[in-house]
Structure formats: C-alpha cells, structure tokens
What we know:
Layout: H1 12-16, H2 33-45, E1 61-62, E2 65-72, E3 78-80, E4 86-96, E5 107-118, E6 121-126, E7 133-136, E8 141-150, H3 152-155, E9 163-172, E10 189-193, E11 198-203, E12 205-212, E13 221-232, E14 237-240, E15 245-252, E16 259-265, E17 271-277, E18 282-288, E19 297-298, E20 302-304
Parallel strand pairs: 1-10, 3-11
Antiparallel strand pairs: 2-4, 4-8, 5-6, 5-9, 7-8, 9-10, 9-11, 12-13, 13-14, 13-17, 15-16, 15-18, 18-19, 18-20
Protein name: Lipoprotein
Keywords: Signal
Signal peptide: 1-26
Amino acid sequence: xxxxxxxxxxxxxxxxxxxxxxxxxxxxxxxxxxxxxxxxxxxxxxxxxxxxxxxxxxxxxxxxxxxxxxxxxxxxxxxxxxxxxxxxxxxxxxxxxxxxxxxxxxxxxxxxxxxxxxxxxxxxxxxxxxxxxxxxxxxxxxxxxxxxxxxxxxxxxxxxxxxxxxxxxxxxxxxxxxxxxxxxxxxxxxxxxxxxxxxxxxxxxxxxxxxxxxxxxxxxxxxxxxxxxxxxxxxxxxxxxxxxxxxxxxxxxxxxxxxxxxxxxxxxxxxxxxxxxxxxxxxxxxxxxxxxxxxxxxxxxxxxxxx
Length: 307
C-alpha cells in the first residue's frame, strides 16, 4: 500500500538503477508504480538531466513524445470520503515518434496529479495503482486510459481539498539493465510534461433532515432540524460544516419539484433548525449548494402528514 507521495531526496542515477526492466507493462512482473515513481521523483528533483546518471556513462536522451487532451474524472471534481479508496478515470492523447512503442516491455509512462510549484518539484503526488493502456490510432498517436487511485486514510489532509495540477512522464529503458553497473544511460529516454490541466479534490458532504411533529394539525408549527457534515481527512470522521447557507425546501405531495421556503445558516457544529407553518401534506428537505472544497448535497425528503 502506498504512502503519501513526496519528492525523493536522492539522485536520479541511484533511483533509476533500482528499477528492473519489466517483462511487459501489463504483466505481473512489471515494476510497481511506487518503484518507478521513486525514480521519476528523483529525476524531477535533479537540477538537470546530468544528475539523472553518472557522467561517465552518459545521460538520458529526450524522448520525442508529448501528452495532450488530458481529462481527469471526465472533467468533474473528485469527491473523497473518510476511508474508502476512490478510483477515477484519466484519458489522454500521446503524440510520439513513429519508432516509439508505448506498449513495449521496456517503456513506461503515466499521467499524475500533484500539488506544488511544478511537476518537477511536487509537494504531493497522486497516481494510479495500475499502468495505463494505450491504443495506437496512427503511426505517431495513441489514445491512453489510466486511473488516479486515492486512499484518504493515509494520503490526504484537509488542505488537499483544492485544485490540483496535472503532469505526465515517460521512460524508455531500451532493453538496458538498470541494475547493471555498466548501463549505458545514453540509451535511456526520458521526458516529463507539466501544465496538462487541473482537477479538484473535494471532501464528501452529507446532509440530514427531520420535520416534526408527524402528523401535524394544519396551521400549527413544524420544526425542521438537520445537519450538514463533511469528511475530515485528518480524523477520518465526518464533522459539522459550520457557517454555511442551506436552503429549506418543500415538495407538495403528488408533485415532483421542490420549492425553496427559506435559507438558513448552519451553527458552529453544522446543525440546522428552523420552523414553518403546516399547510399541506408534503416533503421537507435541506439542500446545500456546495463550495470549492465541498460538493453540493441534498437530504432525502422527510414526509409530513398535515391533518
């Protein structure tokens, strides 16, 4: 299981030499994403490509490859709760030299999301557990599909509920044994690309409602209570979302549309309470429009029988 990914503080040569050439990308003998990620982090944190390998064995050449059209989670925010793993799709186009085989046993690429100043120096990285699959669409273009897998129990803190940037990398090992002392680094290709887009992480929200008494005499007072809460990625529990505007809505029995009755604000613990006069049978609910860090949510309607 992965730990919260941060930049490795080692040289690219040492990290890359820890890799084993995979039998095939989709094969069980392929290096894990974590193993390769350590190497890529080292390469990104190096001041220049010369730090990628020992000077007397050459330096990796720049791959003729670029990423475009990246879409994370179909363009929607990624909503994460307190415990369950969240997996979202990532799709993109890769344009490459005709002699590059993205599905070769010794070729690895991926698209990731990160927080920090740049993809070369990320503060936090998130990526998929499995390697992407790429389908050739021409001699020089391929469509790729991957994932981002998120484990909130150990990868996220609350400040991660914000905008994330997207970057990608590719490594062409070219049949080199990276465990060998005499590896020819000039035959290893590498490229990384920043600025591929953005995505947003949000803390899963929950909203409850209870209208009472039930039944109630027409014209009498109905008290509607509820609570707005959201995932806390540091305590791994749901906590009240304070000082948020929430709409109280009503749907008359036999209809399908909710109408806003009034707007109130959650208290310091996320609780809601207000009163209305009983007029007709129907359903009351609270509805929250959402914020940048927290998605919109509506409670299931609570039916009130008016006599």
